[in-house]
Amino acid sequence: KIDDDDDDDDISSHAFSGIRGLPGLEFRINSKGFLYASLLAGPIIDDEIRRIKLMPSKQCFQQFNGCIEISNLIISRYQCPQLVSLYPAPPNRLIFTIQNLDLEIRGNINGEIGVILPINLNNTVYTRFHQVSATVQLTVHRKLNGSPYVRVIGCYVSVGFSDVFLHDGDLLGDIFNFHFRGKAADQIRKQLPIRVCKMIRNMIEKRINVPLYTISKAIPLQKLSNIAKKLLIASGWLIYQDM
Are 68 and 58 in contact (CB under 8 A)? Predict the structure, then answer.
């Protein structure tokens, strides 16, 4: 970003009005541009998903006269999605899709259940999500100062299947895996779409809207003109003349 005050002198104030016919810049993104954006989005998605944290899950069972809680849920394994894509769709929308990623989440399980005698739970539990996909609808708007911003108008996340299991070969592991894994998996599974959509909204705000807000003030028109001139000279379309 350019901080010199003098650099703003060659920027027309009309460039921020967004009125057709007045000074400004127009960008057109073709199919290759969307393909390039999709390639850039892949590593960003991988980085953001690894930071997802789920809320603790607690369930009480009358038949066992006790409760269990799964907490400290973090991503322990992650398989990249098979496809990340961004493409335009009518009317004036962008569709962002993530297809078929796998997650394994590790957490701590604590509690007490009554099976003949009270049994204390203090172990590690694993949750696996397979074939997770997300479809996000985006629209592009303009702020009062003329800078564009992207808004999420729809987010849908699907999970192919999920499972929770306790790595313990004794009686405790058998009891949990037989009686509790289904309900625990359902509770954690309900959280995943909410967390993924929140992650995508935060990512768009941080990675797209913030740069879009500053880009018009960060690149003066004179500098854009010089860049365009150098590109034309390099391509042979313009012969450089030293005045």
Answer: yes
Q: For residue 91, is the peptide bond before it cis, meaning its omega torsion is within 30 degrees of 0?
A: yes
Q: DSSP E strands: which ranges in the chain?
A: 57-61, 66-79, 83-89, 93-115, 117-142, 148-166
What are the pLDDT digits (tens) for 3-46? Answer: 444 444 554 555 555 555 555 666 677 888 888 888 888 888 88
Task: Quickly tell me which residue has 């998605």 as its tokens.
Answer: 45
List phi, psi (to 5°) of 116.
65, -60
Ramachandran class of 119: left when φ > 0, alpha when ψ lies in -120 to 50, beta otherwise: beta
In a domain, 5, yes or no: no
Q: How far apart are the first and last CA of the chain?
A: 30
The CATH number of whichever domain residue 40 belongs to comes to: 3.15.10.10
Distance CA 17, CA 142 (A): 10
Give the count of domains, the chain.
Answer: 1
Compute the distance between CA of residue 64 and CA of residue 192 in angstroms, rounded to an integer: 28
Q: Dig out the tokens for 67 from the structure.
A: 């409760």
The pTM for the full model equals 0.69
